[in-house]
Design a protein that fits this description.
The protein contains 3 helices and 6 strands. With 173 residues, it is of the alpha/beta class. It has a single domain, classed as 6-pyruvoyl tetrahydropterin synthase/QueD (Tetrahydropterin Synthase, Chain A, 2-Layer Sandwich), CATH 3.30.479. The protein has a 6-stranded mixed β-sheet with strand order 4-3-1-2-5-6, with helices on both faces.
Length: 173
């Protein structure tokens, strides 16, 4: 059985599927503290984070694009701004109530979870995916986001040499 549609389930072996990808990088200054870390990361500290948002599509639109880069900033910029100059904390950390009371929404709770860069990558992926879906359903935008465009991955840089990435792979079910 020949299956030219790469998105359809198949029992056939995997074959190459042409894919276009674009990446938009947004930057934030963000802190976290890892309550259960055995070393210095248990103390509040910050990072100049790059958040790489990769979108993909099998075909380009009528303008020769996966989508306009402006869509990414419009769809998720406000969300990422909430993390800029904010401190991510595990709600189990004994300092959480004190810092939350002192700094309000600048302390971002992670419910009984350490806000590692891996956890941030997954959190960002899930929220960005929803933000892009919401954007695609809006009629009041100048730029259109096609349903064929999919969030491929979110990579969060912690330092210039260290990053974590989260993606959801398609399966043949």
């Amino acid at each position: 059985m020949d299956n030219d549609d790469c998105s359809q389930p198949s029992t056939e072996p995997l074959k190459p599927c042409p894919m276009f990808r674009i990446c938009k990088i947004l930057e934030i200054e963000n802190g976290h503290m890892l309550a259960h870390h055995p070393d210095a990361c248990r103390f509040p500290h910050g990072h100049s984070r790059k958040v790489e948002i990769t979108l993909e599509a099998e075909e380009l639109d009528a303008h020769g694009m996966v989508c306009d880069f402006k869509i990414v900033k419009d769809a998720v910029g406000a969300f990422l701004d909430t993390f800029d100059h904010a401190l991510c904390m595990n709600t189990d950390d004994s300092m959480f109530p004190t810092l939350k009371a002192a700094f309000g929404d600048r302390v971002i709770p992670f419910e009984k979870t350490e806000p590692t860069t891996e956890v941030l990558a997954k959190t960002f992926f899930e929220t960005i995916a929803k933000g892009l879906d919401d954007y695609a359903s809006r009629q009041d935008t100048r730029y259109r986001l096609r349903s064929a465009v999919r969030l491929a991955s979110v990579r969060v840089w912690e330092t210039s040499s260290s990053w974590a990435e989260y993606s959801q792979q398609l399966s043949r079910q």
